[in-house]
Amino acid sequence: ILVGGLEYSPGTLHIYSDSALTLPAIIGIGAGGGVLLIAIIAVLIAYKRKTRDADRTLKRLQLQMDNLESRVALECKEAFAELQTDIQELTNDMDGVKIPFLEYRTYTMRVMFPGIEEHPVLKELDSPANVEKSLRLFSQLLNNKMFLLTFIHTLEAQRSFSMRDRGNVASLLMAALQGRMEYATGVLKQLLADLIEKNLENKNHPKLLLRRTESVAEKMLTNWFTFLLHRFLKECAGEPLFMLYCAIKQQMEKGPIDAITGEARYSLSEDKLIRQQIDYKQLTLMCIPPEGEAGTEVPVKVLNCDTVTQVKDKLLDAVYKGIPFSQRQQADDMDLEWRQGRLTRIILQDEDVTTKIESDWKRLNTLAHYQVTDGSLVALVQKQVSAYNIANSFTFTRSLSRYESLLRTSSSPDSLRSRAPMITPDQETGTKLWHLVKNHEHSDQREGDRGSKMVSEIYLTRLLATKGTLQKFVDDLFETVFSTAHRGSALPLAIKYMFDFLDEQADKRQITDPDVRHTWKSNCLPLRFWVNVIKNPQFVFDIHKSSITDACLSVVAQTFMDSCSTSEHRLGKDSPSNKLLYAKDIPNYKSWVERYYRDISKMPSISDQDMDAYLVEQSRLHGNEFNTLSALSELYFYINKYKEEILTALDRDGYCRKHKLRHKLEQAINLMSGSS
């Protein structure tokens, strides 16, 4: 270093390069890298194993899908084959069967008083002279239009006057006035006019008129059509209705039907469809009829999965073909005897010592259980009473009656799903009966049954197959009902007369909306009369209606109602299956209904004189069907129950005061109370 003249040397300077990492750092990084490498290798191994498992699962699922697909294809193929062959068979089988119409009295009684076999109006009234005199005085009052209208309106104003009472009064009045149909028609028209007035005053939607039986007038209207359309049913509409009933019954019986739940392989109702594959074979049995001799055997087709009672029913249907149900032997009174050779005779029963019991489920005996073969000889013989049979039949009948009673509580298509009961265990043994399918909700469904549940929707193709098979019969019925031109039978006067009356009422109240007029007519005739008859063919014919037939007829009746509606039905994936089933047909049926109403309105009007003459003739033909005094006696119950209210109402009305109707009613009451 030189500073001026001074020189100084500080020494030698060495410059070193810095080291990148310390030794501990190098060791740490090496260890971390090793761990990371091991982790990556482990992840790769796990990923490969997972991929292999996924591939295996995918292959298994693909196999399951292929199996499901083949089952779908098989089911659809079967349905299509059945569709092609069944229509011809059904038509052939029903040729030459005589239609077992009920006589007028039984038919009207079943509509007016459903479920009551021995109604008082069918019997002579055994009463003291003063009671008879009182009832004759009451009859004179009922034949006074103002009294009758006051009587009905007063009853309807009472809160305790129930829906059942309204129906009962309407039916009793029609029975009492059967001999004076022209008077009953005048009263009915006035009641309907009052109902329309009340409906509009209450600001109710006009379309709701006649929708539900909430008044005496509505039930009277049903009964009025019942009386006046009997001849039309016998001569025209009864045949396609009976053919539809027979077609449904035969088609249902071609496949298995569960004797406990009523579910069937063939059905129009989703709720009554067996959603499992049931293996069965058709057998032909040679049946010796009751009191029949050897050599008089009748060949009958049955299924090897049928219970003994089901077989007996099929045998009786074949043996008594064309004979009214009430005139036949019943299955409960007969034993089924299997004859093997000359000496061996085995009585087959639904339950006996051979019945199979697994855990707490007891399965009803079938032909397969007894190993009955094709071509076997069987005989229907009078039931042999034994102690075992009595105990046995009691248990079985009770189990079935629980189901039947649940079934009868409702008949609307919407409530079909709620009909399937829990299979209740028998109190004595703790076992539950089953036939083809166990109760779906039961807890001992195995995990392996999931496959059959997954595929259960596939069986809905059977609804389509059954619908296709029955289509011709449904079309024939709808076409007959919604047509003004019938073979050898004109449109009943009652229909034209009532439709004209409704149009007249609409004109009077300046209702111009064609939808309202259409709805009134639909609620008046199709809804009030035809739907009832379609759902209950046993009101018209001497037949037995099973639960599966009832479910299918309910679907047809619902379709009939939808066809008469003016509103559009928007269908989606959640729509009921019965609506989807007939979705493509309903627009066509609707056009029939519109044409029908249009054709009726174009027909020349019926004068009151012509209608009265027709009604007088109807009264002459059927005036003695019911016991008028007995009907009056039943009606008098309501006079007694609402005496003060009726007397007050008669006091308030000017016409009734002028004609002293209160005084006359009091006379009748005093005469009646004199007997008690």
TrEMBL record:
Swiss-Prot/TrEMBL GO biological process terms: axon extension; morphogenesis of a branching structure; motor neuron axon guidance; regulation of axonogenesis; regulation of cell migration; regulation of developmental growth; regulation of extent of cell growth
Stretches assigned to coiled coil: 51-93
Record bears the keyword S-adenosyl-L-methionine: no
Protein name as it appears in the record: Plexin A3
UniProtKB keywords: Coiled coil, Membrane, Transmembrane, Transmembrane helix
SUPFAM superfamilies: GTPase activation domain, GAP
Gene Ontology CC: one annotated term: semaphorin receptor complex
Species annotation: Pleuronectes platessa
Claim: Cell inner membrane is one of the keywords in the record: no
Domain Plexin cytoplasmic RasGAP: 99-646
GO molecular function ontology, one term from the record: semaphorin receptor activity
Entry's transmembrane regions: 20-47
Domain Plexin cytoplasmic RhoGTPase-binding residues, every copy: 268-380
